Amino acid sequence: MAAFPLPPGSVIGILGGGQLGRMLAQAAARLGFDAAILEREHDAPAGRVAARVIEGAYDDPDALARLAEVAGVVTYEFENVPAASVERLVSLGAEVAPGPRALAVAQDRFEEKTFLNANGAPTVAFAAANTPDEAIAAVTSIGAPALMKTRREGYDGKGQRWVEHAADAARIFAGLGSVPVIVEAPAEFVRELSVIAARGRDGSTAVYPLAENHHEQGILRRSLAPAHASPALTEQAERIARRVLQGLEYVGVIGIELFELKDGRLLVNEIAPRVHNTGHWTQDGCEVDQFEQHIRAVAGWPLGPTAATARVEMLNLLGDEVDGWKKFASEAETRIHLYGKREAKPGRKMGHVNKVKPLR
Ligand code: AMP
Asked: What is the spatial distance between Cα 45 and Cα 170, in angstroms, rounded to a whole number?
């Protein structure tokens, strides 16, 4: 068992070799740690900047054993890590953060909304369904139109469909693969916001300023942060973040997606038990960014300050938008973060830029 705080020179294990793993590995290196990435793909974005790479599937017992052996703590960059892999790591004596409960809650939209409501973090009304008849009953009880989502493995707007009439529910249930679903009431939001927050091993918490987020076809295009927000709205978001962190006895950084309603109330859409795309602005707009904050938290270090130092517009570079690097490089206000991905497929997140302005 590792003793916390982990000293510099320790190894931070990271499941997943994408851009979030890459930026976590870079932050870890800055604090004197070595990152060990477990990733199936040779040449993945994170592997190319990490001190060590363990090539293997996320459920490969040998790869997990090698990771458990070297890492003082193991964390992850995506929430669909198989629960059995985390159990295996824990049974091998590894410290895994965020822990299995956070992962279980975040992997299942029904468990997630049930947890949120039980912990004073409000959501839209929802109902679960496992059969075509239950799907009809769920839409009837919530009221159409309603949004039907697979309970597990949806991301970037995938695995969800609007149901305009209860009579369509069985067909849409089948179209989603006849897997367990959740039916949600529509949130009549005026803005989509998110709050990034962290909890340390000592139970201390730190909350970043709100970001305002704009999606296209389910994919985040841009974030504006700190979002314009009244003190009451900010206080509501902070209260929600602290309740979620405490309810999960969380260790690490969490992303909480919020709907702002016309009457000023916030509802939680979903939580991501990891660093989050809507927190990329913190790299150039906050005292300590979300990646360093996550490494500090899982390593048992004190959390860093989260105050904004600049106003940021974060733009995701999707597909061949990354070819604009020369233009971005010529702009004094633009900070460039590219992920080193070899192939620019349409819609693929290739990098992001943070356009920075003074706070006032
Ligand atoms: P999700 O995959 O749950 O993050 O949803 C993707 C996007 O769909 C959100 O960012 C919202 O724009 C929209 N959305 C999700 N759930 C709802 C809802 N209950 N009501 C209205 N819009 C929603």
From this structure: 41
- Which residue CA neighbors atom 15 of ligand 1 most closely? 269
For a mutational test of ligand 1's pocket, the pick from 110, 267, 269, 271, i.e. the residue with the most ligand atoms closer than 8 A to its C-beta, is 269
The rounded Å distance from CA 23 to ligand 1 centre is 26
Domain of 145, CATH number, reads 3.30.1490.20
pTM of the predicted model, to two decimals? 0.97
Atom of ligand 1 nearest to the CA of 154: 2
Average pLDDT estimate for 260-276: 97
Task: Render pLDDT for 206-240 as a digit per residue (tens, 0 to 9).
Answer: 999 999 999 998 899 999 999 999 999 999 999 99
Which residue's CA is minimally distant from atom 6 of ligand 1?
A: 157
Residues in contact with ligand 1 by the CB-under-6-Å rule are 124, 147, 154, 157, 184, 186-187, 192, 215, 218, 257, 269-270
| Residue ranges with strand state E in the chain | 11-15, 34-39, 52-55, 73-76, 126-129, 146-150, 160-163, 181-184, 189-199, 205-207, 211-216, 219-225, 252-261, 266-272, 311-318, 334-338, 349-357
pLDDT at 195: 98
Query: How far, in Å, is the centroid of ligand 1 from the Cα of 209?
Result: 21
**pLDDT tens readout for residues 13-63:** 999 999 999 999 999 999 999 999 999 998 999 999 999 999 999 999 999
Are 217 and 338 in the same domain? yes
Number of domains forming the structure of the chain:
3
Share of the chain above pLDDT 90, in %: 96
Give CA–CA dist 241/249, Å, rounded: 12
185 CA distance to ligand 1 middle (Å): 10
Ligand 1 atom 5: residue of nearest CA:
157
The confidence score (pLDDT) of residue 269 equals 97
Q: Does 340 lie in the same domain as 321?
A: yes
CA distance 72 to 260: 39
Indicate whether 271 belongs to any domain: yes
Quick one: pLDDT at residue 288?
A: 98
